[in-house]
Amino acid sequence: MKTILYATDYSKNSAAALKLSYWLSKKLDAKLVILHVFDLNVALLTPLSLTYSKMEKETYSKHLEKLSVFCDSATGILPDGERMQIVIKENAIVYEGILETQKEMGADLVVMGMKGSSTLKELIIGSTTIAMIEKSPCPILAVPSSINEIALKTITYTTDFEESDLHAIAWLVKNFISKLNATLNIVHISTKNEYAGEDQMEWFKEMLQQKVSFDKLDFKICFSDDIFKELVLFLSKTKTDLVVMLEREKTSFIKSLAHRDLVKQMAFKGTLPLLCFNKEMLSP
């Protein structure tokens, strides 16, 4: 991993995400790009007018100073332009500004803060992060504001035994886990009526071993009629520090979570970082 892109709105949530981004950049020996996207929001002015140009320049300078202070307060480090670089971008649609910067910088990972709302995705992540998960060509790491101690010793990946899962885990081991010397739990949770779940896990193990050479892997299959409760229990028992999920079609695990009342009781809501892969980015 060469470049980590951290996007902020100066909120408390994003301050926690900055601390984790900075920690990861040191652990992974990666450059950290710190981004703020702003909307000039001047409906009566045209982009060609001198007033617009002046206002854009003044707003840019203001955000540049504000972002420098924000970085210093969160990490105690001022960006040097080399290992830590500040980028200010104007775009009315925040996620588009982030995607543009990700492409320009060739970022391998985008880090953002979590926000709260009503559905599963909106409970743990805000609308901009949702858009990034659906469109980003690289993984998205959503970080809760409540994270106190930075330690990614145990990582849990939830699998549905898809080929995309194999690619995601291979990326995870190569770029993340091996460098952090972490343990990876690979878990599949389904109802007791699922056919041949254990056979699928054995097949998945064999396929993964052809792609990944890593000793600190643990495989687990859990059967329960209450997937939420079983997942929460598993995360608690394994003392998971980071949850990893693949963004799938509507019928899959992460999408199905959005339609259950028990989502409001999930233990990792706002307490565990969530790393998400877009399935399309993993297509061969």
Automatic annotation (TrEMBL):
It comes from the Bacteria. InterPro entries: Rossmann-like_a/b/a_fold, Universal_stress_UspA, UspA. Residues 1-144 form the UspA domain. Coiled coil: none annotated. CDD domains: USP-like. PANTHER family: STRESS RESPONSE PROTEIN NHAX (PTHR46268), UNIVERSAL STRESS PROTEIN UP12 (PTHR46268:SF6). Belongs to the universal stress protein A family. This is UspA domain-containing protein. It comes from Flagellimonas aquimarina.
